[in-house]
Amino acid sequence: MNPDLNKLQPYPFEKLKALLGQVTPPKNLAHIALSIGEPKHTSPKIVVDTLNSNLDKLSNYPSTIGLPELRESIANWSTKRFNLDTNNSSPTNLSSKKIGLCPDSQVLPVNGTREALFSFTQAIIDRTSSPLVISPNPFYQIYEGAAYLAGAELLLLPCLEENNFIPDYENISEATWQACQLLFICTPSNPTGSVTSLSSLKTLIALSDKYNFVIASDECYSEIYCNEAQAPVGLLQACAELGRNDYKNCVVFHSLSKRSNLPGLRSGFVAGDAKILNKYLQYRTYHGCAMPIQHQVASIAAWNDEAHVIENRKIYQKKFQKVLEILEPSLDIKQTQASFYLWPKTPICDELFAQKLFEQQHVTVLPGSYLSRTVDDTNPGENRVRMALVAPEADCIEAAKRIRTFVEGL
Ligand SMILES: Cc1ncc(COP(=O)(O)O)c(C=O)c1O
Asked: Which residue's CA is the nearest one to ligand 1's atom 16?
């Protein structure tokens, strides 16, 4: 079999299961999971109704490129959300052309971003020239597996608090950038919640121009943020501000899973450089992963509606506020910029913290070191845990109280 399969690591939740299997939780306390990043809020009714009323589409094969109406609604949503049509506010670019996003060549529907991040990597990597993929550390584990199965080496850049959890791109050598074929960024980040600024995105675009690598920006948490006046910026937005309507070498990944509480719909999109998407479409045709038509129609309803997204954010904002009120006095914890995660420091080793918390309070959190790798003797997730505030508000509050009791007893 493919020997690169041996490079794949167990998924963080497999490691967690083994860790927690060594202890017995108290029977009198109900289990509360803050470990898995699966959205739990109600799926929007309009989407569920649309799905139900289109089940007759089961009798048709879907096309890989998707319905024109779906690509149109994605292009409209992206253009509005990321100001792709604002002519460019940057004083350095005097171009007055509209940027926008072409639904026919710059948008592709995908079955959630997970499969897209993986398959995109297979399509991008040129195995004939010692390829390198660069990724943040900690990271979404698919980046790693996708790089290895594409035959690439992986360089992990630590995301540290002193740099607002954004990798330090300044200190990467020329030779490394030259070898780089694909750079993953995750903004807002899982698990740190940090958002890459427009100026950093523009710097990365300049580096991509200089060294000719592709930037894959995983933006699947872009619609979960705490301040309504500060929506996270995105890579296409940075391109538009620079007047680059070809989005050269830039591709973004978006999803309805978190934005619209539809992880089971398996619906997202990739958008950006038409030359890349054209070849990626060809790859996907062979890969055989077209989105079912009824899911496409339901996705149109989701991308066209913003009211449920605003409502969803309000629920998260309230949970963040209540949980932080409880935990701040006893834990080194900060509100993240976006995403539904908290990324606190632990007063003891993160694995031990997660295990003892489960043993004493029946609350599950994910050790930070399971989401990152040790490089040069340092694991940037060490002594941190990831808490996903996906459970109902009452459960999140109860979990926070139990965590506080646990920490105060250490
Ligand atoms: C950073 C990140 N990217 C991508 C995904 C995949 O999401 P989906 O395939 O549901 O779009 C996840 C899911 O948890 C994630 O955390």
From this structure: 190
Q: Which residues lie with the beta carbon below 6 Å from any ligand 1 atom?
A: 37, 112-114, 140, 186, 190, 218, 220, 255, 257, 263, 268
Residue 228 Cα to ligand 1 midpoint, Å, equals 22
Residue type, 394: A
pTM for this prediction: 0.96
Nearest CA to ligand 1 atom 2: 140
Q: How far is the CA of 114 from the centre of ligand 1 (A)?
A: 5
Within 238-325, strands assigned E span 250-255, 268-272
Q: What angle do CA 332, 335, 340 make, to 5 degrees?
A: 115
- Nearest residue to 238 (alpha-carbon basis) of 270, 206, 194: 206
Cis bond leading into 191, ω under 30°? Answer: yes
Considering only CA atoms, which residue is closest to atom 6 of ligand 1?
A: 114
Q: Which one-letter DSSP state was computed for residue 371?
A: G
Residue 37 CA, closest ligand 1 atom number: 14
CA of 156 to the centre of ligand 1 (A): 19
Q: Which of 11, 111, 143, 190 maximizes ligand 1 atoms within 8 Å of its Cβ, making it the mutation to test the pocket?
A: 190
Q: Could you list the pLDDT tens digit for every one of the 410 residues in the chain?
A: 999 999 999 999 999 999 999 999 999 999 999 999 899 999 999 999 999 999 999 999 999 999 999 999 999 999 999 999 865 445 455 454 567 999 999 999 999 999 999 999 999 999 999 999 999 999 999 999 999 999 999 999 999 999 999 999 999 999 999 999 999 999 999 999 999 999 999 999 999 999 999 999 999 999 999 999 999 999 999 999 999 999 999 999 999 999 999 999 999 999 999 999 999 999 999 999 999 999 999 999 999 999 999 999 999 999 999 999 999 999 999 999 999 999 999 999 999 999 999 999 999 999 999 999 999 999 999 999 999 999 999 999 999 999 999 999 99
Residues 6+ away with beta carbon under 8 Å from 381: 137, 138, 191, 350, 367, 368, 369, 370, 371, 372
Residues comprising the chain, all counted = 410
